[in-house]
Write a structure and sequence with these properties.
By secondary structure, this protein is of the alpha+beta class. The protein has 2 domains: 56 residues, no CATH class; 82 residues, GMP Synthetase, Chain A, domain 3 (2-Layer Sandwich), CATH 3.30.300. It is 22% helix and 36% strand. This is ACS2L synthetase.
Length: 152
């Protein structure tokens, strides 16, 4: 089991080779951080069996009262709760803090009903303990279904 930045060691057909009118930026963004590898910008976890799980964008940062916080960091804590199937954290403009956080999660058992208030409180406390008090979301939304992928 190992977690880290998802990088690709070999080129593939259709891979970007530059950024229009800014080749230096392309090199700096994708090829400098991990020499010899293409940095995708995503974090990943590889299990001992060799399966990969994308953990989120490494550059998706929210600035809350001067604290920089990765959305994937919060989602990772929330997803370890036994009652959570999936989660997403987004930032929104906040008059005092600069940015605030909203957590949306899909429970393992979608018929949680009256237990969602208790689960919401447990998640906020878990985030406060594992990361910091300022990392607890301002708003928590329980969803009944995740996004449905479609083919175009």
């Amino acid at each position: 089991d190992v977690s880290g930045a998802l990088c690709i060691s070999q080129a593939w057909p259709g891979m970007a080779r530059t950024i229009y009118n800014d080749h230096k930026r392309f090199l700096k963004t994708y090829l400098t951080s991990y020499p010899g590898f293409f940095f995708t910008g995503d974090g990943a976890h590889r299990t001992s069996e060799g399966y990969y799980q994308l953990t989120g964008r490494l550059d998706d940062i929210i600035s809350i009262s001067g604290h920089r916080l990765g959305t994937a960091e919060v989602e990772n804590v929330v997803n370890h709760h036994v009652a959570v199937a999936e989660s997403a954290v987004i930032g929104y403009p906040h008059e005092i803090k600069g940015e605030g956080k909203m957590l949306s999660f899909l429970p393992q058992n979608v018929s949680w009903g009256n237990g969602t208030a208790t689960l919401t409180a447990e998640l906020q406390e878990l985030i406060s303990k594992k990361i910091a008090k300022y990392a607890a979301p301002d708003y928590v939304q329980v969803t009944q279904a995740g996004p449905t992928p479609t083919l175009a």
